[in-house]
TrEMBL record:
PANTHER family linked: BROAD-SPECIFICITY PHOSPHATASE YOR283W-RELATED, HISTIDINE PHOSPHATASE FAMILY PROTEIN-RELATED
SMART domains recorded: PGAM
Protein name according to UniProt: Histidine phosphatase family protein
Binding site for substrate: 54
Length: 223
């Protein structure tokens, strides 16, 4: 039986004009994950990513630490939802920078509310697919893995939204649980599914084995 390793991108540039760019810490997280796997002789038969810059940069960092990996299949269905569009759909007034703990918490409270309304079909954020179409893109990627890579080890690099959606699909979770999972996935965290032609099964969720050492404690991030 093979294993699908789903990796959330490294720390991006939260609060910056262009979020879709790894921070220096995000690059370190990705390289360290690759090094961790290289030290344990981990190899991948296939690699899949979304098409966002932070996905590509995270994979580049992993490969830098790992040494080698197959050419990646890039699937737009693994791209993240647009958090700005979601928030704007229920809170048209600008929120301002999330530069204090209070503003940071307020940002994510509103985002969670917007996610719930989007998943229920109550809102249609500008420029975004419906929830049904978004989740179908994630299911399509999972179906590709089941049909083409049973018995193999597959690396998938994406974002918190698609990864929590994948977990929700496998476990059959309610929307509010999927949202809660989404909010807890850490940068460069690894979630594992066992792969068979018939189904995927969750083995681990949101782990950071590559950052367990004391010297990496301040590399654990969420944004």
């Amino acid at each position: 039986m093979g294993t699908l390793y789903l990796v959330r991108h490294g720390q991006a540039s939260f609060g910056a004009e262009n979020y879709d760019q790894l921070s220096p810490v995000g690059h370190q997280q990705a390289v360290r994950l690759g090094q961790f796997w290289r030290e344990r002789g981990q190899r991948f038969d296939a690699v899949i990513t979304g098409t966002l810059q932070r996905h590509v940069q995270t994979l580049d960092g992993i490969v830098e630490g790992l040494g080698a990996a197959p050419e990646a299949l890039r699937l737009p269905g693994l791209n993240e939802y647009d958090s700005h569009a979601l928030i704007a759909a229920i809170h048209p007034q600008p929120l301002g920078p999330a530069d204090t703990p209070e503003r940071y918490r307020a940002h994510f409270r509103i985002l969670c509310d917007a996610l719930a309304q989007w998943m229920a079909g109550v809102i249609s954020p500008q420029g975004m697919p419906s929830w049904n179409d978004f989740s179908a893109g994630v299911r399509s990627a999972l179906d590709h893995v089941r049909h083409h890579h049973a018995g193999q080890n597959v690396l998938l690099v994406s974002s918190g939204g698609p990864i929590s959606t994948a977990v929700g699909e496998v476990l059959g979770t309610a929307p509010e649980v999927t949202i809660a999972l989404n909010m807890r996935i850490r940068n460069s965290a690894v979630t594992e599914f066992s792969i068979s032609p018939k189904r995927l099964m969750l083995q681990t969720f949101n782990t950071l084995p590559h950052l367990n050492e004391v010297e990496h404690a301040d590399w654990v991030t969420h944004a």
